[in-house]
Write a structure and sequence with these properties.
The chain has about 280 residues and is mainly alpha-helical. It is built from nine helices and no strands.
């Protein structure tokens, strides 16, 4: 029977094209990561430019300092207090297995807090609250076309939306992490006294803390405070769609901010090791 017009008969032995493999998926993910990193770097550079040359609304930084700092104080305090209790209790149990001497428990715990734990754990807590809030707020402005209205008024959204949050986050993240470290240390001291009968005077030993530890901890505070609003603001500005897009932007902000904190932690810790040496 002759083939119908416009119909091409299948050849014998012909097979359907194979679906893309893992190499294709990895390549597509790498390309997306490259373009995303380039756009994020552009947002960071423009943020630094507008910090110096921008025109900010009066009182915008103070308002963001209240949103980032004051409204996160209770959450950070409770979280770091319980984390401090758990860390000190577990450290005491491990030390008790080796040698039942707790004279250096407080000194070692304080060194870890100052050098890394207070900054990293506190920043991860802020990434969940502050980062999600920034992405949700800016993403909602994108889907409701408020950001387009800013551009039509010759106002750069980065100068108007991200820079005040950037400045406020750098200040309040440092303040909150110092406070969180103090809360975690006091909670650890109380735990050591109750669980292992370690006097408060013995626990408050600062012999192991030096300028290298303080410099590393402060560097992490400023780096994390800068990363959270930039990454979250970029995720908010790249929102598309409706409410579902805002939800995805919020999730991306939390995940990417946490990933940025972990990467910065590795970079700064490595730099500190090279500058101050191992202890």
């Amino acid at each position: 029977m002759p083939a119908e017009e416009g119909h091409v008969p299948h050849e014998i032995g012909a097979t359907a094209p194979e679906p893309p493999g893992i190499v294709h998926d990895l390549g597509a993910a790498a390309i997306d990561l490259f373009f995303g990193a380039r756009e994020l770097y552009s947002v960071f550079v423009r943020t630094l430019y507008y910090v110096v040359r921008g025109k900010r609304e009066k009182g915008a930084v103070w308002a963001q300092m209240f949103e980032i700092g004051n409204k996160s104080l209770f959450f950070v305090s409770i979280t770091m207090g319980f984390i401090g209790m758990i860390l000190c209790y577990q450290a005491g149990l491990q030390a008790k297995r080796v040698v039942p001497d707790f004279t250096m428990l407080g000194a070692t715990y304080l060194e870890l807090l100052v050098r890394d734990l207070a900054a990293s754990l506190g920043a991860l807590m802020l990434a969940t609250r502050v980062g999600a809030g920034i992405a949700a707020e800016i993403g909602s402005m994108v889907v409701t076309e408020q950001v387009d209205a800013l551009r039509m008024c010759a106002a750069d959204p980065i100068d108007f939306l991200i820079v005040p949050r950037f400045l406020a986050s750098m200040v309040m993240t440092t303040v909150l992490i110092v406070w969180a470290g103090a809360v975690a240390f006091l909670a650890g001291a109380a735990t050591a006294y109750v669980a292992f009968d370690v006097p408060f005077r013995t626990f408050c030993n600062m012999d192991l803390v030096d300028w290298g530890d303080l410099s590393t901890g402060l560097a992490k505070c400023f780096a994390y405070g800068a990363a959270i609003p930039v990454v979250s603001g970029y995720c908010g500005l790249s929102t598309f769609g409706g409410s579902e897009g805002v939800g995805w932007a919020t999730t991306r902000a939390v995940v990417n901010s946490s990933l940025a904190i972990i990467i910065l932690n590795a970079v700064i810790s490595t730099g500190s090791l090279l500058v101050f040496g191992a202890k």
